[in-house]
Amino acid sequence: MKYVMLIFQGAALEGQAELSEEERKQVYADYEAIGRTPGVTPGVPMGLPENATTVRVEGGRTLTTDGPFAGMKEAVGGWFILEADNLDAAIELAARHPAARHGGAIEIRPSEAYWSKEAP
């Protein structure tokens, strides 16, 4: 099963400046380890939420908004794909992610069920 792993940076991004050099090195090592995990397909790096443009279409008109549209504290900071045997394996990997341990969160979504014939 493939899982889309959405990285919500939240306080993790803000708290990076407060980390010691050793802690920062560990965070980078954790990112590298996750990227080398069998079954992981890294996503491309994303820019900061304040540099985003959100597009909606209402009544046939294209509307744009500067910055993220979602009114949430934790903006999506990145994503990657994990091919794993089950949700427990995806949860285990998500718990190793620096964002999950430093004030952010990892949202796990099965990627195939929606498009498969077995979807509800």
TrEMBL record:
Gene3D superfamilies, sorted: Dimeric alpha+beta barrel
Going by the entry's taxonomy, the superkingdom of the source organism is recorded as: Bacteria
Where in this chain does the record put each YCII-related domain? 40-110
* Family statement: Belongs to the YciI family.
Return the protein name. Answer: YCII-related domain-containing protein
Specify the species.
Answer: Nonomuraea phyllanthi
